[in-house]
Design brief:
Helices cover 33% and strands 18% of the residues. It is an alpha/beta fold. The chain has a single domain, classed as 4-Layer Sandwich (Purple Acid Phosphatase, chain A, domain 2).
């Protein structure tokens, strides 16, 4: 590992915005790209986002983390738990694939284009490096990251947690980079950087896709181009 990273926040089916941000990130060709999850749902172009990410990993060194939305898709395919996914943006994802609920129930994993379901399955729950811990939602604030990695219950926090946002301090031994919780501006607290700036929420005072270049600590954003 080079120790140089670019973490990219929640994309949520905003393919045009992603493409424009990637052009801006070409300034740092030696940095590893770390995507913190939630590539799909709510936006109109989830399938196209995944197509682009599959291309991108042939061009650059990439790490793809799993978000709670990818987990909901997998739970729908593997366990038939469709309701929670559909009410959280899954309808838009199905439309981007030109699929219906009946397709998923009838064909399951075979409903998706080649490579897409495999992409979702091979996303990582976290990415631990010497200086940073990359994860979708966050980590338990009251225990070290090492302890969390030994704690089976911490996986839920990695995908869904928000309690750390209100913690006065954390037990973390390194900086945690995460998405999941949309804010108008990046979250910057001791050992805590949140980069979900609500790309898909243009009407809520957000509407930006944000990346952070590390260790330079330079934030790069792209205003949403979605219609």
């Amino acid at each position: 590992m080079s120790g140089k990273y670019i973490a990219i926040g929640d994309i949520h089916g905003c393919s045009a915005t992603l493409e424009k941000l990637l052009v801006k990130l070409e300034r740092w060709p030696e940095h590893q790209l770390v995507f913190v999850g939630d590539y799909i749902d709510r936006g109109k172009s989830s399938a196209q986002v995944v197509d682009r990410l599959l291309e991108l990993e042939q061009e650059r060194d990439c790490v793809f983390l799993r978000g709670n939305h990818e987990q909901m898709l997998l739970d729908s395919v593997d366990e038939g738990q469709l309701k929670r996914w559909l009410i959280n943006g899954g309808e838009e994802t199905l439309q981007s694939y030109d699929l219906t609920v009946e397709n998923i129930l009838r064909s399951g994993k075979d409903a998706f284009p080649e490579g897409h379901l495999d992409f979702y399955r091979r996303t990582k729950i976290y990415y631990d490096t010497p200086d940073y811990f990359f994860v979708h939602a966050g980590a338990p604030a009251g225990q070290t990251i090492r302890k969390s990695l030994e704690d089976p219950e911490a996986k839920t926090t990695f995908l869904w947690g928000r309690d750390h946002l209100n913690a006065l301090e954390t037990a973390w031994e390194k900086t945690v980079i995460f998405g999941h919780t949309a804010r108008p501006f990046p979250i910057r607290k001791p050992k805590m950087i949140g980069i979900d700036t609500g790309c898909v929420y243009s009407k809520r005072g957000m509407g930006k896709l944000t990346a952070v270049v590390l260790p330079e600590m330079e934030f790069v954003n792209q205003i949403s181009l979605e219609k």
